[in-house]
Amino acid sequence: MKIFISADIEGTAGITEPGEGNRERPEYAEFRAYMTDEVVAACEGAKAAGATDILVKDAHASARNLILSKLPDYVSIVRGWSGHPDLMMFGLDDSFDAALYTGYHDRAGADSNPLAHTLTGRIQRIVLNGAEASEFTLNALCAARYGVRSAFLSGDRGMCAAAAALVPGIVTVATSEGFGPASRSMSPARSVVAIREGVEAALSNGIRGGIPAGAAEWDLRIEFATPTDAYRGSWYPGAEHVADRMVQFRATDFFEIQRAIRFIVM
After folding, report:
1. What is the C-alpha to C-alpha distance for residues 4 and 150, in angstroms, rounded to an integer?
2. Which residue, of 23, 55, 198, 232, has the greatest Cβ tally within 10 A?
3. How many other CB atoms are there within 10 angstroms of residue 195's CB atom?
4. What are the residue boundaries of the structural domains of the chain, listed by start?
């Protein structure tokens, strides 16, 4: 069984304030360790369920966060950003059996995590076929392009609920819940146990979760925080500047949506 793990940090147990995920701040070292511990727990759960090949994508900020000396010897890792439109899912292909997501957070504008955002703080919201999209939305649909099931997610309670709505049957572990700028979280020690058990359950006796519903046509709307970013993004081929801060792009192939996001946003 071949497993892909996309690892973020803002849904890690305990994290509450932006500096905790910023490599330039002293508190980052503590939360980097918690992020790594949760990834290791997911790897251990996958291994216990029979995984023989595990690839981890470090998918937060610099994409150089995980403490490599803590990773099990049966794991390989993708670090840094290649520039490929798969972004947080780079390294995935159709040879994988399931995708797992750790440290995930809710979409921009959600109140379930003080650090909720979608891709970058320059975005107010991303709307896909009329529904507000999170990073998980985009990444689960990326996995779907390869025919890979999304089986497990850990992160804030709002993200877990949204993931379950998008991918019925996915196993989730809610590490925290937001209250304005505050959060209530399980302890890091408890989160690693819950993640290890959750991943093992998601991959044992048949892979849980599945593939989100596709569409014949995709309508992407990106609402920026400033009109300057929208104007700049509107020059991507096929994009339309439909409002002061909004760019629209349509496609029949979801990879074209990913490509547009890569060049309009990132």
Report:
1. 10
2. 198
3. 28
4. 2-123+134-203, 218-264
CB 3 within 8 A of CB 53: yes
130-187 pLDDT per residue, tens = 999 999 999 999 999 999 999 999 999 999 999 999 999 999 999 999 999 999 999 9
Confidence band (pLDDT; 50, 70, 90) for 224?
Answer: very high
Exposed e or buried b per residue across 199-222, where buried means at least 16 C-beta atoms within 10 angstroms of its C-beta: bbebbeeebbbbbbeeeeebebbb
pLDDT for 144 equals: 98
User: How far, in Å, are 3, 72, 123, 151, 183 from residue 53 at the CA level?
Assistant: 6, 12, 35, 16, 35
Helix spans in the chain (H)? 28-48, 135-145, 157-166, 188-203, 227-233, 254-264
What are the Cα distances from residue 180, in Å, to 41, 114, 116, 120, 207? 29, 6, 11, 19, 35
Query: Length of the chain in residues, anyone?
Result: 266
CA distance 151 to 173: 12
Q: How many other C-beta atoms are found inside a 10 Å radius of the C-beta of residue 237?
A: 8
Strand 240-243 and strand 218-224: the pairing is unpaired
55-61: average pLDDT:
98
What's the rounded Cα separation, in Å, for the pair 151 and 205?
13
How far is it, in rounded angstroms, from Cα 249 to Cα 246? 10
Q: What is the pTM of this model?
A: 0.97
Measured distance CA(204)–CA(200) in Å, rounded: 6
Domain 2-123+134-203 -> CATH class: alpha beta
Q: If you average pLDDT over residues 53-59, what whole number do you get?
A: 98
Q: What is the mean pLDDT of residues 243-255?
A: 98
